[in-house]
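Incident log, structure service

09:12 report received: a user says their structure output differs between two submissions of the same chain.
09:20 pulled the input from the user's history:
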Amino acid sequence: MDKHNLTVLNEFILTGITNRPELQAPLFGLFLIIYMISVVGNLGIIILTKMDSRLQTPMYFFLRHLAITDLGYSTAVGPKMLVNFVVENTISYYFCATQLAFFSLGCVTAMFLDRYVAICNPLLYTVIMSQRVCQALVAILYLYCTFASLLVTIKIFNLSFCGHNAISHFYCDTNPLLFLLCSSKHEIQLITIILASIDLITSLLIVLVSYLFVFVAILRMNSAVGSHKAFSTCGSHLTMVVLFYGTLIFMYMQPKSSHSFDTDKVASIFYILVIPMLNPLIYSLRNKDVKYSLHRAWKKICNIFSTLYIKI
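09:34 re-ran on a clean worker, output below:
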């Protein structure tokens, strides 16, 4: 690693979401509420899908891992962003590298493959989407995302920074860091574009093709109840698709002429904080199994506290 990095850039300054003092307190309160709802919701999904026997299907296996990744990258950014509202906006060199390495895509695509098999091949569903297949899909996605994020992070942090350490963002993202580099950016920009294209285009194609077959299968169903249930299940997924891929396309497919770090900040807030908060709400409000499991868990907790109260 460049000596310049080690001796001069021990930390970066994050410019934050806004430099207007009157907005700091309201934004801190808003993002604290969003982050807390995200943590409670995603932890709830993880615990419910792990403990409840009714939720031991491939769909909920992928949902659990989606909740894990949502919780992971919102926690990698959220607490530090909240701290920076009340103290100086600085981040250490190594924590900045950790933040950059923590973002990944993956389980969304696997969930759509699961729905495709469940609706188009219901008789073979348990055979095709076995526990081993589900674990292999998730493992492949995690390994690829780990490789891609580490490759980009190592490449960037082995290049020379100019000494100017103000990042025009509220966390360490690729584009603001590239702006600070003195070394040639051509190779890392090419790597970033290739990886982003593979992530976005491949996963989006899988989702679109899967849902094309899903809708054809639904239209061929003779049972109105079956069609309604299939549409209800897919409705949650499609809501998530619009939010997830719409934000990503907005972030990474903007022309250079209209690109700005301010629009990146807005899109990043949605991607890092809002979507991880909405995912558990979408699935719990639109899914009877999750609502039933949540109701049973709540009754158990109430019974435990009532028993303790009686003993006291």
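09:41 both user submissions now match this output. Likely a transient worker issue. Closing.
09:42 reviewer note: Residues 302 and 308 are 10 Å apart (CA to CA). The chain has one domain: 3-311.
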